[in-house]
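Team,

Forwarding the record for the chain on the shared tracking sheet. I've put the sequence and predicted structure together so nobody has to dig through attachments.
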Amino acid sequence: MYDTLARIEKQLAAIELGYLRKTYIATRPKFLERATAIDSISDFWSTVIDEAPAEIDQRIQPRDVPALNCLTGIDVERFEVLDAGRGEPRSIKLTLTFRSNEWLFDEKLEKKFYWRTSENGWSGLVSEPVKVHWKNRDLTDGLLDLTINLWQKELYFRSGGQKENAINATQEYATLVEKIRRTPQDAISFFALFGFRGHHISAEESEKSIMNGSRRSEGLNVESPPLPNTEIYPYGEEVAVALSEDLYPGATHYFTTAKERDAKVFDEELLSDSEEDNVVDGGRHEQPPKKKLKISPEPSTSTGPFSHAVA
């Protein structure tokens, strides 16, 4: 019986991935058309970010907001999907575009997230760190640069054929681990997302694991192993999925919801002012304080490509 259930789960996952490939190919031109249409709306993406779901909103620090308010574009590309309908649709490339500002030299930041499978059957997103060129303050307080320093040292070690654990004896490793230890998790900048690496699984290891078959691909849940102690952004996969599966496709809904709410609040304030002007004999109307409410987007009917994490 269990073998039958595992087989069905695997088949369902394969159908879901096939649907995701076809959907991406069919909708990609429309998302590009949308990007052109909103170019003239200067506050589109800053408004959308302000309405972001909890997975993203709780990762944005107050110091991040001025830079994020300079966003002019967000794009999500499933870069491993081929026009012929093949390729891994869960791998994504995130692109943030900014207008000229006082925080970043970069007009565009791109980061790729690769869907990989480990030898023990765990599957998920991994990445490589991307450098951000700051004009003044480093919003990650040095975490991103330290991550890149360690990654470059690892690449140097690999090219020299040194053992993987040799990196643990380096100054770059010790400095980063100590910096992470002294940094409160709830104070990490959203921009540390560009330093997310996840589990260190190479493309070769992933391909071999898939070829050999894994417990996850047989329909059994495989618990995620602990992230390396050099990971500066443990929420990386969660945020990347929220951006690609929620914020990006639902951007128009988030924007129009915010604008409609703001217009309603404005009308209510005008009405309140008008009523106060009509009060006579020194009477006063006591009004409860108004609070800006965040309205969640309409729930999706799709189970999402990450609901069946099958290699």
